[in-house]
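Human:
Focus on the backbone:
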Amino acid sequence: MTLLLVLLVGGVLGWLASIVMRTDAQQGVFLNVVVGVVGALIAGLVITPLIGGAPITSGAFDIMSLFASFLGAVVLLAIVNLFRRGSVR
């Protein structure tokens, strides 16, 4: 059940991050889920230790973990944009 919630929340967070980074037209539903889940993993490794809380990959679905996962997805898209376009955008 937790895996299904991580995929669902990851998809929504990946979609929101792609809107913020203006890459939504290039991504489909599958890529939004991938960006959201990988962003949650990045948040669990890098962002969560800095701001506190638990990542959504551990089953915690509070405001702090959702915000950290969203930031992780935005960071992931910024890194991808940097390598693909030469600018973060």
